[in-house]
Fold:
Amino acid sequence: MLQIYNSLSGQKEIFVPIEPGTVRMYVCGITVYDFCHVGNARAIVVFDVVVRYLRSLGYAVTYVRNITDIDDKIIRRAQENGETSDALAQRFIRAMHEDMDALKVLRPDIEPQATHGGSVEAMLSLIQTLVDKGYAYVGGNGDVYYDVSRFQRYGELANKKLDDLRAGSRVEVDEIKDDPLDFVLWKAAKPGEPQWNSPWGPGRPGWHIECSAMSMKCLGTHFDIHGGGMDLKFPHHENEIAQSEAATEEKFANYWMHNGFVQINEEKMSKSLGNFFTVREVLERYPAEAVRFFIVSSQYRSPLNYSDENLDQAKTALTRLYTALRDLPRVDEPVDEAYLSRFRAAMDDDFNTPEAMAVLFDLAREINRLRGDNREQAARLGNTLLQLGGVLGLLQDNPEIFLRGADDASQSDIQALIDQRTAARQAKNWAEADRLRDVLKEQGIVLEDKPEGTIWRRE
Structure:
């Protein structure tokens, strides 16, 4: 029975969907003003695993992940580049898709953009409802603000009281807001910035209203799961709850999930701190699936420490799994129930991927043990390893391609050296055989001599 840690209650809860057999899930996507960094990728991969697992349990999942394509950072970067905000955003959306495709991330069922596809109209309608109900007002600068004092449960998600939040807030010098905690729903137009018409004058939507409007437009006013990074818990998700539930007078989302930060030297990886690595930079040095393995190997709520050492370990561990699958015939057999039961027990415990991956390594050990004496049973377990790995988005490549690479030209050169070494061994010219092994080792090639011949892989 699946249990999910609900940030709203602060405890694990048995997952009960609103509609039996169906899951509606919304996850906050990225703001597209630059290439994705590993911290962005973690959130996307984490919820990709959640979707994959829910579907493996038989749920019909509607997965929505938005794109923020208008924002101060986008506008500033576009002005610096001498291009429109939309041109910049669309360029980085394409780059994001390339990066996430490389990491074997499934595309969401719906991927709304804040300024496309009727999203702005949905935001204007929602803001108007809040104004009509007395939850929003026009401030001294022409912006429209949400009045947090009107929402009695404000701070519930972050477990904070209004007075405590006010004590830590900066008072607006111009007194443009009634309360320093009030947040903007609609920003009045500034010269040179993109703008849309509204009942309150030309301008653009605030960030928080975007996600409320897009999620309700795609999933309805009450849905199952809302997810995102831990940094979005307050104020973004807190504000989403306040404005959504004030407008609809019903619960917004039943379960709130937040993934932990990616850290470098115990600091959150972020563009603002300048301590980030883009996915593209990392993929120049590591196989994409090793990067995904690194992300999935940590429980999603815990911090994830980025380092070359941890990525090297991920690559080595993934190599062990692919080596177990190597040369096994593919069989169409049911998944082994004992291993499936253990895997599901781990994943049912708030998507405990480290425990689930331990099952994969137990499978690999058993496959290697059986390979010589009972190849048929090894192949059946190989199918189980493939199926369970697929739930995590792993083991998607051909083992030979992962272990050797896809460069046919270099492979023929490597094979020629291996053939020379085999001939030297047959002639009992051990010195020459050792020399050729060393030559291959310098190229990062690992040899394994078997009764049927020598096989190889890259380090």
